[in-house]
Amino acid sequence: MEPTLPATEARPATPPPASGLDARLARVMPAAERAAHAPLIEEINRLKRELGVAILAHNYQTPEIFHGVADFVGDSLALARQAVASDAERLVVCGVHFMAETAKILNPERTVLIPDPEAGCSLADSITAADIRALRERYPGAPVVTYVNTSAAVKAESDICCTSGNAVEVVESLGVPRVIFLPDEYLGSWVASQTDVELILWRGHCEVHERFTGPEVAAFRAANPGITVLAHPECPPEVLAEADYVGSTAGMISYVGDRRPERVVMITECSMSDNVAVAHPEVEFVRPCNLCPHMKRITLPKILASLEQGIHAVEVDPAVAAQARQAVERMLAVAPRGGVRR
Question: How far is Cα of residue 304 from the mean position of the Cα atoms in its chain?
């Protein structure tokens, strides 16, 4: 079995030999698809070693990327930590644009590439730096806690960032009775249920997680007696109320690794279930499938082109980066508690 590391750590993901990789991917991918990916995986792995590149892949990447070419995998907090810890000359971020921006903010002297610069995020697009300035005027003295799923410009206007893995701890670390929490309304509502701190929320949502519903989760239970329901806190409150465990992507992975439920459903982006299923063949995964169209813009051909041509470099204005870095580094100093088992 693969070890499941704490939510604060990115898991090393050095790809296994081709035969071992094929056996693992057989759980989630037909033979013809595996065969089609194999030459690209081999060439990407050869080239990244030659060029001194580290590939960081988010949990929502497809299995051929996650298991085939990534050097480190994890949630946004884990990848941010690994971006700092890696000694690679160049970083290729297989995720959405704000993740690549965060890597660049933390590594201003290093080259950070993203295979597709159009890989965006509906949640990040829901708020601007001007919105934060207006909120500060409306709620003077309230510190701004900003989810890491935001642009560099928004991070630069914030006091501290957080992820779903350490949001409660970040809010409580400030020692104040009230904070402005941005931009995910559902994550904010969940954090508010876990703390006595008053949260002023913004009405931003993730287009993947907001599509899940309470009746949908109830239907999973009815069709699969004894199933364990794990949900990401970006889901609506009615969904979280139906869950056995609420936590970040890393928290859900740890839950499966620690408890080995007989049957489980992860209420989050569906590639994550595929990736975790590879590591836990003894667990039956029921797979709801809400795909993130932005994550799926990252493909093996685009990763190869990024390596071969040195595209697409992520740049952040130095003045913005300096301010944003403070908020991100404060986030990295706060350890996550993990999720909540109901």
Answer: 22
| Closest alpha carbon to 60 in 74, 78, 41, 45 | 74
Q: For residues 66 and 300, is the Cβ–Cβ distance under 8 A? A: no
Separation between Cα atoms, residue 291 and residue 297, nearest integer Å? 11
- Number of folded domains that form the chain: 3
- Tell me, yes or no, if the pTM score tops 0.85: yes
Q: Which tens digits make up the pLDDT trace of 62-96? A: 999 999 999 999 988 789 889 889 999 899 999 99
pLDDT at 340 over 50: no
Least confident piece of the model among 14-28, 130-144, 170-184, 255-269: 14-28
Same domain, 201 and 228: no
pLDDT band, very low/low/confident/very high, at 234 (cuts 50, 70, 90): very high
Could you give the C-alpha distances from 135 to 144, 201, 274, in angstroms and in order?
9, 10, 40
Beta bridge pairs of residue 91: 54, 112
Q: How far apart are CA 278 and CA 127, in angstroms?
A: 36
Q: Which two tokens stand for residue 19?
A: 């035969």
User: What domain range is 86 assigned to?
Assistant: 11-119+294-309
* C-alpha pair distances (Å), 136 with each of 73, 119, 168, 200: 36, 30, 21, 11
DSSP class of 269: B
CATH number reported for the structural domain that contains residue 247 in this entry: 3.40.50.10800
Rounded Cα distance, 299 and 116, in Å = 9
Alpha carbons 181 and 203: distance in angstroms, whole number: 10
